[in-house]
Amino acid sequence: MKIQGPQSPTPATRPGRPGQAAAGFSLAGAAGAAGAAARSGVAAVSGPTGVASLMALQGVEGVEGPLERRRRAIRRGHRLLDRLEALKLARLAGQGDVEALTALSRTGGEERPDPEDPGLTAVLDQVDLRVAVELAKAAAARN
What we know:
The protein is built from five helices and no strands. By secondary structure, the chain is an all-alpha fold.
């Protein structure tokens, strides 16, 4: 068995042409890297896109986690507060508040997710109570 010593490194420049890069070396940027990847047969790796793909990968279709329930509950609370604000502005401006009441009633009738957070649940209860009071006042004014 023959043992060979360390091999001498290959020069970075060609002999006879000072300053020129060795064959196969270039700094062409991303285009050069993409071309090199295509020549070597390496394909780009792309991960799953979108939440639906991630849920399908996890095998958890249709199951909503506590974080998503919390987000939905907060979004619903914000929509209700926006509708209450629109009702207040319509009343202050002396405009008909029928549209604002309809939107408030529609948003208040949406299913309320359980956020499993006692503090958030208490705040959402107060918002729902305020919505119920405004809808009851409007119903009493119509009669």
